[in-house]
Amino acid sequence: MTTVAFIGLGAMGSRMAQNLLQAGYRLRVYNRDRAKTRALAELGAEVADSPAAVARGAEFAVSIVSDDEASREVMLGAAGVLRGAQPGTVIIDSSTNSPALAREVAKAAAAEGSAYLDAPVSGSIKQAQGRELVFMVGGAQPAFERAKPLFAAMGRLAVRAGESGAGATIKLVNNMLSGTMTAALAEAAQVAEAAGVDREAALAILGEGAAASRLLKTKLPMMFKRDFTAQFQLQLMEKDLRYFLGLASELDRPAPIAALVRSQYQAARRASLGRLDACAVYLQASGEKPSA
Asked: What is the pTM for the complete model shown?
């Protein structure tokens, strides 16, 4: 039976890990907050005390943590994955990191005889639960081929975008578009409401118009209902927009729209809206307070 190490049991990771367990993999887990390992331990997962320990002897190691800083510690730290991974281990990092960090970790992994795939995901908690995630993958083709069964156990699609850093790059592009569209939906919702347009009519009409998308059909109803239960936290969207702007600067490409949108999310985060869903940018623009 294939052993998979899993690091990061937050809202997304816990569901991804459970899907691997249900698919028949022997699962070993680590989370900084050990309490988050209990549910999986009750289902048969083994709990380890560090990223190095969880990776030791595993054929695959999957990680999904919050940002570059957390990923660097998990991968390259004194008790990181590369301290425990055996040669031949395929590391699947589903965190949303900067492409520069992805390339740094890939180089370090190769020096230890392991393969690193930057493989961030598109999807919400619901998609993670239902194995409907889309993986955007950067890294060597042979490692990607080996990892395909794991991707299939956790999602509906995995696409290799290129060499190391390509997965991280396209994820930042994806989230820049998502964040921009969500901010535009927030403006549209406020104008429609202020003009007295029936909300259900607005949803029906806009859902069939040129701007129709899955994002519109999920986020606009949340704004109208003032339901900002986090599917993807606003503070993570703001972080991803910041990383996108850093990448655009490295590439000497202008990104004025992304810069403006990021400033809206930054203001919302600073207004203590960071743990709400990204569509709570609506509250920042409207000046409303979140309901208790």
From this structure: 0.94
CB atoms within 10 A of CB 222: 20
Contact 55, 61 (CB under 8 A): yes
Domains and CATH numbers, the chain: 3-163 (3.40.50.720), 169-286 (1.10.1040.10)
131, exposed or middle or buried, with CB in 10 Å at 0-12, 13-18, 19+? Answer: middle
Catalytic residue chosen out of the listed positions 171, 217, 225, 289 = 171
Q: What's the pLDDT tens digit per position in 52-106?
A: 999 999 999 999 999 999 999 999 999 999 999 999 999 999 999 999 999 999 9
Residue of 47, 46, 45, 105 lying closest to 81 (CA atoms)? 105
Taking only the tens place, the pLDDT of each residue in 6-15 is 999 999 999 9
To the query of whether residue 171 is one of the catalytic residues in this protein, the response is: yes
Count of alpha carbons within 13 angstroms of residue 215, beta-carbon side: 18
